[in-house]
Amino acid sequence: MTIRVLLTDDDALVRAGLALILGGSSQIEVVGEAANGHEAVERVRAGGIDVVLMDIRMPVMDGIAATEAVLALPEAPKVIVLTTFDADAYVVRALAAGANGFLLKDTPPADIVDAIARVVAGEPMLSPAITEQLIRQVTDAVPDARAGQAVERIACLTDREREVAVAVGRGASNAEIAADLHMSVATVKAHISHLFTKLDATNRVQVAIAMHEAGLL
User: Fold this and answer.
1) Closest to 51 in 3D by CA, of 106, 109, 105, 115
2) How far apart, in Å, are the Cα atoms of 130 and each of 71, 87, 89, 164, 211?
3) How would you classify residue 87: left for phi > 0, otherwise alpha for psi between -120 and 50, otherwise beta?
4) Cross-referenced InterPro entries, in alphabetical order (predicted)?
5) Which residues of 81-105 are buried (b: 16+ CB within 10 A; e: fewer)?
6) 4, containing H or E segment
7) Helix (H) or strand (E) holding 21
8) What domains, with CATH codes, occur in the chain?
9) How many angstroms separate the CA atoms of 66 and 58, rounded?
């Protein structure tokens, strides 16, 4: 299946560079470009987008607001945030808003292609170290009352789902979770899908945050 990608960045040169990089992949097709978040939302609304590469700092509508708006649409695509800074405050806010991962703008071309394929397949986009850093930044900035709310949220999880959620929070890949918990990768994906629904999460970082706030990490 060809992955249809929308490039969103206010710098035309960045968009041109990404289009050139992705154009070399047989599994990816760049189907549109947007110069700001508002344009991105309207293009996604028109349909036919699987992944949005989303810059954070843009005029008219920034990448955080655009991410929230895109993910609120029916059959929303995956969103990968583009940034020049590793896990800065804007990245944390974008991931908390539901972005599926982030890429540094100087990421090697092959890694960008791989990241897009992985996020479509439901694989994690963040290393355990980055996940831990992001969780710390989010949870340190929220009141203790969130802990009680998190415990209530995870009460609906089965024991198996809780085990998978903790593994997700530790940054494990689907394959690693499958090996550690002695189940198939397909079963792991099914459990993660259930976690997203039950925890009202759109990405693995949000699941990890819930586990951390509930005191399970």
Assistant:
1) 115
2) 23, 7, 13, 19, 16
3) left
4) CheY-like_superfamily, NreC/VraR/RcsB-like_REC, Sig_transdc_resp-reg_C-effctor, Sig_transdc_resp-reg_receiver, Tscrpt_reg_LuxR_C, WalR-like
5) bbbeeebeebbbbbbbbbbbbbbeb
6) strand 3-8
7) helix 12-23
8) 3-121 (3.40.50.2300), 135-213 (3.40.50.2300)
9) 10
CB distance 59 to 77 below 8 Å:
no
Tokens 């508002």 belong to 38
Q: What is the Cα Rg of the chain in Å?
A: 17
Q: What is the pLDDT of residues 2-17, one digit of tens each?
A: 999 999 999 999 999 9
CA dihedral 100, 104, 108, 109 (to 10 degrees): 50
**Hey, what are 172's tokens?**
């494990």
DSSP, res 104: E
54, 103 Cβ separation under 8 angstroms: no
Per-residue pLDDT of 28-43, as tens digits, reads 999 999 999 999 999 9
Considering the entire predicted model, what is its pTM? 0.74
